[in-house]
Write a structure and sequence with these properties.
Layout (H helix, E strand, L loop, with lengths): L2 H6 L25 H9 L4 H15 L8 E4 L4 H13 L4 E6 L6 H12 L3 E5 L3 H15 L4 H17 L4 E4 L3 H5 L10 E2 L1 H8 L4 H8 L14 H7 L2 E4 L8 H11 L23 H13 L3 H11 L5 H11 L8 H8 L3 H11 L5 E4 L2 E4 L5
Parallel strand pairs: 1-2, 2-3, 4-6
Antiparallel strand pairs: 5-6, 7-8
Helix pairs in contact: 4-12, 6-10, 14-15
């Protein structure tokens, strides 16, 4: 496709500002993206029926002997804290919360995780082999343009492995990003999903490729391997998202986590966006959203603004202005940290970034990729 053609075919949702370059995005006859269509549908969804489904699922797994009956992956941020709070205090479950420690934690994230634990939760931290995590993250960065791919693998694989170790058969993640933010609708009517869906969607079909390319040994990969089907069937692990059962609202989650779990927001807005209350746990997230920008033309500010529009907290014009102001920030604050972690030179690092820059949408000027388009 020629650059002019790509730019001419570029468009944004007429309700929010989701770009047509987003993977698995679709638009209806009004020009609304599938995430906005879903937000509209949620207003008339039979949540009472889904509440019944939730209570039935919880009763199926509820234990009365004091042992853990569900698991919640949680970084100490707003979403996992909200899910754990509801399971414990609203539904009387006994959740075991779990954190897979990311590679480059931030002080605020460390504080929030500790505050969450102190607020009254059983919690375990899993720290996979440091070199294995670094190599997988670097391999994912190079092979897929995904700078924390090793950690992404482990928040699926290690969580399942620990669930089987503790005989916990029900795992609650927060929101279903595919449904909430525009993507596959496979799970919009199904509460439970499986490992094959995790590999295909959340690991973007690159799991086997990155594992193979890493050259790591079996012992190093212990926490990065999925249990085989026979083991999964033996334990009957059920994976689900809290957002299936309740109208998902990230800002409400933040308020609950702040009030009940000790969550603190950043003093200033986060790198590359106007918000300060989410994704405060790791430095690699800023690189992830910058690569997202280079690949597809939208970054962290666009992502956050779309959520705010859908929940009615801002209008489209405000969202456009914020994206023009914040989106596409090169995370220069963290570059020395990234180079040290990946054990790369600046030239090697830049070469990877350049390989993922969509040259239909960007041109390089004075060493930085600059958009050829203006959001509208």
């Amino acid at each position: 496709m020629k650059a002019n053609s790509a730019l001419n075919n570029l468009n944004w949702c007429t309700n929010c500002i989701t770009m047509s370059t987003r993977p698995r995005i679709t638009f209806d006859e009004r020009g609304w993206c599938n995430a906005c269509v879903w937000a509209e549908k949620k207003r008339n969804l039979n949540w009472d029926e889904r509440q019944v489904q939730l209570e039935s699922l919880l009763d199926k797994h509820r234990k009365n002997d004091g042992s853990f009956d569900c698991m919640v992956p949680c970084s100490g941020g707003k979403d996992g804290s909200y899910v754990a709070y509801n399971l414990k205090h609203k539904y009387g479950m006994n959740p075991l919360c779990i954190t897979i420690t990311p590679a480059l934690t931030l002080p605020l994230g460390d504080h929030n995780l500790r505050a969450f634990i102190v607020s009254g939760y059983n919690h375990i931290s899993v720290n996979p082999d440091h070199d294995a995590m670094r190599i997988l993250n670097k391999t994912g960065f190079i092979e897929m343009g995904f700078p924390y791919y090793g950690w992404l693998i482990s928040i699926h694989t290690a969580v399942i492995r620990m669930a089987t170790a503790f005989s916990v058969n029900l795992i609650f993640y927060g929101e279903d990003g595919e449904v909430e933010y525009g993507g596959s609708a496979e799970t919009s009517k199904n509460a439970i999903y499986d490992v094959h869906y995790q590999k295909k969607v959340y690991l973007e079909g690159g799991y086997e490729r990155v594992i193979s390319a890493s050259g790591l040994t079996a012992s190093q990969l212990n926490f990065f391997n999925f249990p085989d089907d026979s083991e999964l069937n033996k334990h009957n692990i059920q994976l689900t998202h809290w957002s299936y059962f309740e109208n998902w609202d990230p800002y409400r989650n933040y308020l609950i986590a702040k009030e009940h779990c000790g969550l603190k927001e950043a003093e200033d807005s986060n790198v590359g966006t106007f918000t300060n209350f989410s994704q405060n746990d790791q430095a690699l997230y800023a690189l992830h959203t910058y690569l997202m920008y280079l690949k597809f033309g939208f970054g962290r500010a666009n992502q956050d603004a779309c959520i705010e529009v859908r929940r009615g907290a801002m209008n489209r014009e405000q969202a456009v202005n914020l994206v023009r102001l914040y989106d596409g920030h090169y995370p220069e604050e963290f570059i020395p940290l990234y180079l040290d972690y990946y054990q790369m030179t600046q030239s090697e690092f830049d070469k990877v970034l350049d390989s993922y820059a969509n040259q239909d949408l960007f041109e390089k000027i004075d060493g930085r990729w600059v958009a050829k388009f203006i959001i509208k």
